[in-house]
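Reminder to self: tokens first, then the designed residues, so the page reads top to bottom the way the pipeline ran.
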């Protein structure tokens, strides 16, 4: 890429995704993001088991958010399910990312979690950009760049006969 002082936008910008440093970085980013969620989930499991009561209580407090009454109703009527799904979901999402298996699928659920956290926290004292949004963007990066293919099990899973017979399964991998 050349740079022209007169017009810095004259040339196209290219990002080499096939390089070794990019692969290392994406694998590192995936593992760190996975550890973040795995640690959050395992900590909840150790402390509360499958009875994470803060989850439903948190949803019942979301009366003034952009989601309206939906989280409040979820907290009131699906509390028993949320108590188990939050710690299990975080743990499984984290494990999937750390080992690089079903990364896109795990990241879709990560985006769901982070979107709820981002909207649910909704104080936005520092503007719209906060740690919840940054987590959401990390999970979107995992989806878009198929980071499970970089030193992850998804690279191995893609070569199986099952995935070769059903190529649409590749969309879950990465």
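Designed residues (174 positions):
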């Amino acid at each position: 890429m050349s740079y022209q002082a007169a017009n810095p936008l004259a040339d196209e910008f290219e990002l080499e995704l096939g390089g070794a440093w990019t692969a290392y970085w994406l694998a590192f980013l995936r593992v760190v993001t996975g550890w973040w969620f795995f640690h959050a989930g395992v900590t909840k499991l150790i402390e509360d088991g499958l009875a994470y009561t803060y989850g439903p209580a948190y949803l019942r407090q979301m009366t003034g958010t952009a989601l309206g009454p939906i989280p409040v109703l979820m907290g009131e009527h699906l509390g028993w399910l949320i108590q188990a799904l939050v710690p299990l979901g975080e743990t499984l999402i984290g494990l999937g990312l750390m080992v690089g298996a079903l990364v896109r699928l795990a990241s879709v659920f990560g985006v769901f979690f982070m979107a709820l956290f981002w909207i649910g926290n909704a104080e936005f004292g520092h503007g719209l950009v906060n740690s919840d949004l940054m987590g959401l963007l990390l999970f979107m990066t995992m989806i878009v760049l198929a980071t499970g293919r970089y030193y992850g099990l998804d690279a191995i899973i893609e070569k199986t006969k099952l995935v070769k017979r059903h190529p649409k399964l590749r969309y879950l991998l990465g």
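The two ends are 29 Å apart (CA to CA).
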